[in-house]
Amino acid sequence: MDLRKVLEDLASGKISVEEALRRIRLFSIEYIENVIRFDVGRELRRDVPEIVFGEGKSVENLEKILVSVVPRSGRVIVSRLTNEQIAYLENAKFEDFEIFINKRGRIAVVKKKDFDIPKYDCRVGVVAAGTADIGVAEEAKVVVEQMGCETVSIYDVGVAGFHRVLEALKILKERDVDVAIVVAGMEGALPSVVASLIDVPVIGVPTSVGYGAGGEGLAALYSMLQACPLGLAVVNIDNGVNAGVVAGLIGRRISLYKQKCVSVERT
């Protein structure tokens, strides 16, 4: 795509602003040494932040991505960080970038110092069944917050102590969350319980916590997929990133709906 031609057509009135935006969103790709083809238009096109999967990438390639993309997109989220990548980011010296690292979630945000995260009127509950599930929950939490929603985190509330589940549900109700992410390993029962007792969408995230038959998250995944309560959707094993993105998109739409309702009331 010739960006100059799009801008010239826009300036001459041949195309509308909406058409120019559509063309730019559709073809925005960054080529980095014929090794990486990065979709720098993802956030513009889908309202989803730029997210890089860290595993399998060398520190050198990660640095190339950050140096090339952050100045254009404003920020990059790096998920599934390796220990080597965490050490690199902890010691990296970027003059114009800020780096936030969540070691437990193995996720980082690298952004320009003047980049402002958008804020929306939405709240997302992030619930983890056990302490071993917190890493995936933290991954989801970072993504949700980068998408502009407030999070309400409640950890270690698995069904082994059912009174803790009831306490967590009370908090979610009191904080009036718009959607809940529920992370669980082992038999993966918690999302079903939460979905049966709360009136908002629930996103179940099975984790690879477990042992024996159905270990590595399979038992939790199958349990959630076979769940009886309606309103429960399930992402893949350990996929906190996708759970965070889905919750953030739901939250944003709810926020826009609230704004429209306020505008109608004022008119």
Automatic annotation (TrEMBL):
Residues 122-260 form the PurE domain. Gene3D superfamilies: 3.40.50.1970. Pfam families: AIRC (PF00731). Transmembrane segments: none annotated. SUPFAM superfamilies: N5-CAIR mutase (phosphoribosylaminoimidazole carboxylase, PurE). Signal peptide: none annotated. SMART domains: AIRC. NCBIfam families: LarB (NF033503). This is Nickel pincer cofactor biosynthesis protein LarB. It comes from Ignisphaera cupida. The gene is larB.
